[in-house]
Structures are given as C-alpha cells and as structure tokens.
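=== RUN LOG ===
request id: a7f3
mode: sequence -> structure
chains: 1
length: 1013
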Amino acid sequence: MFLSTVSVKRPYFSSMLNIVVIIFGLLAFANIGIDRDPNVDLPYVSASVTYKGMNPKTAEQLLLNPMEEAFKSLPGLKRIEGTAGQDYARVFLEFHLNVDIDKATADVRNAIGAIDLPKDAEKPAVFKLKNNARPFMSFDITSDKMSEQDLSTYVNKELKPLLQRISGVGQVNISGTIDREIHINLNPSILNALHLNPNQIKKEIDSQIVNKPSGVLRNSDSQFSIITNTIPSSVDNIAKIPIAQKDKPLIRVEDFATIQDTHAEVTNYSEVNGKKSIVINVIKESKGNIVETASQLKKLIENLNKTNKDQLHISINLDDSIYISEAYHNVRFDIILGSILAILVVYLFLHDWRNTFICSLAIPTSIIGTLAVINYLGFTLNSMTLLALTLAIGILVDDAIVVIENIHRHKIMGKSAITAAIDGSQEIGLAAIAVTLAIAAVFVPVAYMEGIIGRYFYEFGMTVSVAVLISLFVAFTVVPMLSSKLGAQQSLHGKEIQWQIKFNHFFHIFQSNYQKILKYSLQKKKTTLLAGILIFILSIFLLKFVPKNFQSMEDESVSYLSFQLAQGTPLEEAIKRGKEIRDHIRTYPGTTDIIMNVGSNNDSASSISFTIKLVNPKNRAYSTNEFTQRLNESAKKFIRNSNEKIGGNGYNRAIYLDLYSTDSQILYEYSKKVLQHITEIKDIGIPESSVSDQAYEYRVTPDFIKAASLGVSPNNIAETLQLLYKGEKVGEYYAEGRYFDIKILIPTKKEQTINSLAGIFIFSEKGDPVLLSSIASIEKVQIEPIINHINGITNVTISADYFGKDLGNIMTQINKYIAETKPKSVDTSYGGQAELLDQSSGMVSKALLLALVFIFIVLSAQFENFKAPLAILFSIPLSFSGAFLAILITGKSLTIDAMIGIILLLGLVTKNAILLIEFAQQKIAEGIDVDKALLESAVVRLRPILMTTLTMIAGMLPLIFGTGAGHEAYSNLGVTVTGGLISSTLLTLVVVPCVYSLLIKFKFPKKIPFISK
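=== RESULT ===
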C-alpha cells in the first residue's frame, strides 16, 4: 500500500500526521457537551389557547375546531391531535421528518394568528417540542421567616434571573408561587338592599383608577411630561373611592365591600417531603453541557444558602446530571477496561510487548481522533456516541492486528524489518481495507435510518464509521512504521517463557484439529452447506421465542404515580387526599424524597402526581420497575368511587392505543371493553383511558321573552355573573416598587349553593334590579370533561405501563382481541414504545438489507468478482443463531439496542470470512488447487481471526457484566454481539470455505460472461 510504504520510509511524516489527529481530538474534547440523548429536532409543534370559564364542549366549538381547520392545510403536516378541556383547547401537530420544523412553527403561529378567536381568550401559545425539553434539575425553596408572597417575589424577581444567566440554562419553570392581589369583596346583601349594579360599580372604579400620559408641558428652555395618576398605594385609598349614583347620595367602596390585601386564586399546590414549597424546574439549552451546567447551578445554590441561611433554604430534589455523569464515567471505565482486555488478548497471542504496544496505539489514537469529528459534526457525548465508542474498542485493534501479524510472518521468512513492514502491509492491505469498509458500510444504513429512531441512531452510525476509518489510517501509518523500527528480524514469539510455550502448544493442537475438520468438511461440501442452512433455519425458529421490547428499562431511582380524583374536586380536598397517599408511599423502604403536585394538570385540582426518589440500586433489593408495580397495586385502596383512578408513569408510558370513530357513542362503549381486556393482561400497569368520568356544570338558560320584557339581555346576565363569580380587574395597586392587580368579585365561600346563584339581581337597561331566577332557569347538567380528536375525528386513548420483557407479545394479544371484536366504524393506531417497537422492526430490517447490499458492493469492488463476496456473505446468517440463543439464555430481550447489535454483526462476522477468502484467492492466483489454498489459508489466517474475534469479545465484556447507570441497555447489545461472534466464528471457519469452493467450481452459463468470469 502506498500509505504504508511512505510511512515506513518517512517515519517523522507518519508520526506527525497521527499527532495532528490527537491534538485536534484533545482540543475538541474540551468543547464537547455531555447529555443523556442526542439533540434531535422532533417534528412536533404544540398550539394551545386558554379561556377561563369555558367548558369542554364550547372549547371544542369555539377554539379547537377553528384551530384544526386552520392547521389542516399546512405543508408537510402528517397528523393532528386535538384536545378540548375545561378552560382550554390544545392541538398537537406532527410533521413529516423532511419539514423544516422552525418554519413549520412559524406557519402554525401565522395560522393561529389569522383565526377569529373569542375576544376574552388569552394569547395563543405555540412552541416546538424538543427531546431535551424535560427538566434536568429540580429544586425547592422554603422559608420559615418570609411570607409566601415575599418568597414568591424573591423567586420571580431575583432567583430566576440568576438561574437564567448561567451558561447552558435554556428555560426556568416555576410552580407554587402566589401573586399578590387586592380584592374588592362585594357584599351581595348590601348590593341587593341598595339596588347597586355590579357592572356599574366596576365601570365607576375602573374610571377612577388611572395612570395615563396626558400630554407635554413646554416652556422656552424645557419640557415635562404630564401624567394623570390615581393609582392607590394603600387599601384605605381603595376603600375611599367614591361611587356616584343617579338621583342618590354619593357612596364609597367601603360602604358595600371589604378590601382585602391577598393573593390571586391558588389553583395548584406543591410540597417536598411534606413541606409546602416553591418548585423550580430547569431545562437546558439545546447544546448545553448538562454536567457542567448542573455543577454551576449547585455552586450558585450553595452560595445562596450561605448568604440567605437565616431567611430561606434551597434543596435539590432531582438532578439528572448525577445519573448522566455516572453513566458517562461508567462508559469511560468500560472503554478503558475493554481496551486493557483487548490488549491482553493481543499479548496472549503475540507474546511480545513491542507488537502489543504497537497494536494498542490504535485505540487511543482512533478514539481521540473521533472526538474531533464528533465536535465538528455538533454531536455531544451522549448515550449513542458513547455506546459507539465502547463498541468500537474491540474493532479498533482489528486492522492493527492483521497488519502486524502479517508483518511478523514476513519477518519469519528472513526479511529485514523495513522490507517485512512494507511487504506485509501491502499483502494484507486488500483484506484490511475490505474488513474496515465492510464495517463502515454496515453503519451507513444505520446512520440514515428513517423516522425518529433514525434521528437518534444517526450519531451512533457516524461515530462508529469514523472510528473504524481512523483505525485503518493508524494501521497503515503507525503500525508499519513502528514495526520497522521496534524490532529487527525475529521469530514470531522471540524468547518464550513457560506459559507462552503451553499456549502455543495448545494453539497448535487446536490449529491441527481445525485443519482436520476443515479437510473433512471440504470432502463433504454439500453436507456442510446443508448443515449451515439448517442452523440458519434454527435461528429463524429461535426468533419466535425471543422476547421483544423497544428498550431496556434503565433504573434511574425515580418512580412516578398519578392519582385522578373526581372532576370538580376542590383544591383543599385534593391536598388532603394527596397527603394520605404520600404517607402511604413513605412506608416503603428505600424512598428518600417524595414530591407531590396537586392541580398541575391544566390547573385541575383533581389531578395529583407524585415523583418518588429511591436510594441507589446498590442499596435496595428491588428495581424501580418492581417498586412502581407494587405501589400501583397498593394505591388502589385509596380509590373511593368509580370516578377515581390511578395512573403510573405518565411521562413515558409503554403503550398508547388510539381508538377513533365518527360515532362517539360506539367509540366510548368499545373503549371500555378494550380497557377491561388490557387490565387483565399480565405485567400491564394500571391502564388509563382519556375518557374522563362524569363532570357537571350549572347551566343558566335565560327566558328570552321574560328577560326582554324586563329589559335584560342574555349578555348582561353573562357579564354580571362573570364579574361576581370569576372576578374582573378594575385597576392596579402600587406598593414596594411594584404594581399589583385590583380585582372585584364576591368573596369565595366554601359552601356556595344554587340558591345563592338564583338570588342574584341583574340590572335592566333602565337600572331596575331583576331577580335572576325570575328570568332564567338554572340546572345542573352533565358535560364531557375532555374531548379528544385525531385528524378532526373523535378519539379515545388508552395508555398503560408495561413491567415485563416481551412487549411484542403483549401487542400481539391486544391486536388479536381488537381484530376479533372491533366495530367497523372504529379505527386504531399505536403510540409510545408500542409504536416505536413496530417501527423499529421494519426500519432495522430495511437497514439490514441495505447493509447487505453495501457490503456486497464493497466486497465486489475489492475482490473484482461476485463469487468471493457471495461466499463471505454466507457467514452472516450463521451469527443469528448465536445472537438469539444468547438472548434466550441470559433472559434478555430483543430491544432496539440488540437489533443494532445484529446490524453490527454483519460487519464483524464478515471480517473472518474476508481474511480467509482473501488469502485463499492469492494462493489460487498462484496456481494452487482451490481446496489446498483454502486449507493453507485456514492455517495462516486462524491466528489473526481468533485474535480479532477475542479482542472484540473482550471489548464487549464490560458491557455485559457492567453495573450502574446506563448498563441495562448496553448489556442487551453486548450479549447479542458476543453470542453472534462466537457462533459465526466457529461456523465460518468451516462453512464459508466449503461455500467458496462450491462457488469456484460452479460454472455460470456462458450467456452471462461477466458473472462467469
């Protein structure tokens, strides 16, 4: 090879090239962020509109339907999911992957801006969803000295800006704060007695609290702004505001209302370990370094606690950086341990520290060089790139091994070190290039897999491909150069010690027996080929029994529980019920922190959620999955009626089954049957339906004739009730350098009845009071609590956790039930891990086929024929049996990680066949008989084949037997690859030579001269 020849003759040039690679890698390492997952632009946009007091059915008509109509024509739109609930409507849009999501977000904003929404609706919120938009750190703030209002002010005005200034912080979300508010609490009895119109009172107060620019006062040398300001600065100022009445004496606000310095209505509640708290969730910016950002946040919190130790206390209750940092250090340890094990395997076979040292240089050089490319491509050190680097350990020394082993073989022939380095590199060059390109070719389809999964594995595929290409560069530069310098003419092993003699003796026995087996197999080629085919069929049969799951459940020592109370449950009652469940959770051993949130779901107090932190997995005898499963079951005793239900991990449930139909009645009835069926399936967590239980509202229906005859309009009725029962802003209050809202309403009582509502007076156009009950009926009616759409059609979503290892089997059971019972008008689709599992199977199958095609193309180009590539490809199916058998024996599942391991096997197992066939072709070209050439190739190439296979297995051992953060997923992949390597190596050494011999002796029809050649 030209590169190896130049490297041997110009060693300084070769050294400097590799040093440059290392320098760029080290410089890049300091700039690479550390994250959990790759930073992926998801094709999702969310749009929502809030309208306080609007029921779900009205929200569907006035908010949801117009939004869906406006969005359905957006370019690149794939799917629309809509939800209408109490006070809000939300639309979730999924676009095709080739759509520019930033432009799509802008299109959504423009579309919603063109909708004629109700005037009292709040400003629409539009944002794109990101995979890293989950909080990576959460902490709570408490104080025994400060009031809730003062603490809330401190958090919003002082603490939040400090957090936002830290590098890497993208968003700071705060819950549990309260806003100061001045309430003018009207006295209904006095209003009725004095015949005071609430709407007129509002207008009078609103007109007297002003803060308006009123022109400019100018003179010859200066000018001044004129401001008309009546902003009250004390409660007494508000109480003394005069209210003029036609033909009646002047009265003041204090005559019919009480003024209260209080806070806005509290719709949610947060506590940590039983203590009411303000909770802050921090989300990182897209390319931030979580570990570094978390470190800066911790330093800030530590300093704030010292500075304000007498006033408040800040505690960290969730910190993803701990898990991510632990996983990062675990992988770094795996890389080091895998490297050491691989180097020991090299030394075991070569018995020479110089050769071992030369081979070992390929690992750090390749990894450090890959870091430069990772940084250049904008990747982070995340689960995908770190997994790629770990997997590459055993591969990186492969090229160096085959090159240096061949160089030493030439030294044994009596050649000088320089000549042996050049000749050995040139002779093995084709095989080394073929091996590396075959592995790289495998990961091209992985890097360009379709769908969201493909976006995640893009970084994985690119990282592995870059690493192996750099290792090939090292094998053709550093290895031959150092081989020519660090050793004169010598035997392969030099001076041997006792263990080396025993090893060589054992190896020669193994080599001799292998040669005998191969010789016999070549005499029975068709029988051997048939055996190989039967083994492949067996692997297909084994696949039927292999458990299938989308991903391994990582134990992050965090569990989640949600509890849904009946719609309309007051906040105080929800808090009381939540505390009962919290105390029950505390009885479980191993719990450290319990975070309770009430009313966090669309401001509905009926929703209670718990985040439970557990001790480190090493300090407990159960997994987080087992804890969650037991907790779900035991929490059932807190259900008091059919309107209450338990949910598990609402953040990432395994199964989302969408049922949709134009006939909502049939849909709702059928969804109940499906829900019951899923409940009965083993290892399914408590399933939950998006169909909420009964909810009610009081509906005021005016009698048009009576109301009109008394001069009262329906709009007048609505405005009066809204002012009294919801409250309306009438101005601002100034204190302590800030402005606060002043709100007018009737005071909220714990026991408000329909009679008090019926006794409200509505004022006519002439100013006469009219009793509400005399012009309108009031009745309690049932409403739909939540209305869901998919592409404009009503739908029901059933979600559930899964605690087993074979999600594929669960989906088969559900699909069978649906196929047997589904009404014709109902359609179904999946979401969550169930959908991803179905997608991943098809995507990985496509990637496998593409990888086979690319490998065939690369090998055909390298060998200049089709027969050798066909024989080499026959080694691939021989690996499947070992991979599937390994999964079954170890009790693992065929997850997406294991599937990627199978794709990896395509490149790894062809390596052995390439080494065999490439040398055999050289001998055949010299005129040696095919079978004799194959026997000689088997003897010469057995050592590098075993060395490279064992180094790859050694690199996998830390993945298989490792413990701690992140190893659950890596273990599946390690087991799959190791099982496939073992079976394919043993079978390839026998079956592939027979296949190649049959192909060489097989004559293609003369009509196809190119192939027959």
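=== NOTES ===
Confidence is low (pLDDT under 50) at residues 488-494, 1007-1013.
Residues 451-485 form the longest helix (35 residues).
=== END ===
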